[in-house]
Amino acid sequence: MARLAAFDMDGTLLMPDHRLGEQTVATLRRLRERDITLTFATGRHALEMRKLIDILALDAFLITGNGTRVHSLDGELLHRQDLDPEVAELILHSKWDTQASIHVFNDDGWMTDKPVPEALDEHIYSGFTYQLVDLKRLPAHDVTKVCFVGEHDDLCRLRIQLNEASGGRANLCFSASYCLEVLPLGCNKGSALAMLSSRLGVPMQDCMAFGDAMNDKEMLASVGRGMIMGNAMPQLRAALPHLPVIGHCRDQAVSHFLTHWLDTPNLPYSPE
Fold it and tell me: Which family does the record claim for this protein (predicted)?
C-alpha cells in the first residue's frame, strides 16, 4: 500500500482546459481519508499552488518550481534551491538565437519582459499572472528558475546554445514540448521528493507518482510505483519504457486509476 502519492499538475491532474475535474478532487479526498500523504509536484509557483489547495481545501505538501521549493502542509519552507547566479546573469544578459519568450521566477512571482496573454490561459483556474519588468535589472542572486516558451524545434536548438554557454552548470529539461526549463544543477522533482520522503520517514518504495513530461522523469523513476500519462511526451515513454501507461488527462485518468487501485487492488488495471 502506497503511503505517499505525488502528482504533476499540467497534463496529469489538470485537464486540457487547465482545471481539476470533480472526479479528481473527490479521489484526492479519498486518498486523504486513507491517510495517504498528498504531494503536488509541479513546475508552477508556490504562490499559485498555495492558492489552489486553499480553494480545494486539501492538505498537501508542495514541490514547486520543478523541485526548487518544497513546502509543508502549513506552508513552512522545507527546501529551496536557486539558479547559480553566474548562470542567471549569463541567461538574462545574453542574446539568444530564439523566438521563444523568456520567463523568470523567484519567490516574488513570475516575471517576463513582453506581454504573453496566451500564457495566462494555463492559469485561468488560479488567476496567477506575470509581472512585466526589465529582466536585465533583476538581481542574478535572486533567480529560482528561467523558462523559455516557444516552438519545440526552436527550443531544441536553444537547449544546445544554453548547455554550451553554461558549461553544464544548470539542469535543462522540457516541462512540456513548448517549455524549456533552466533549473539549478541537480534540481528536479525526484530529488525534492526524495528529500521530502526522507523527512516524513516514508521510503521512496512506498511512494507512487504520476507525470507526463521530461521534468517528471526522475520522480517517476525513483518511486515504487510510477505512472505515465497516455498523453505523455514520447521522450518520457522512451526514457522509462518499463513503467505502465494510464489514460489521458482529459479523461481524468489519474482518478480512474486510483479508484481502481482503492476499490479493486487485486485486479489487473486497464485504462479503457
Answer: Belongs to the HAD-like hydrolase superfamily. Cof family.
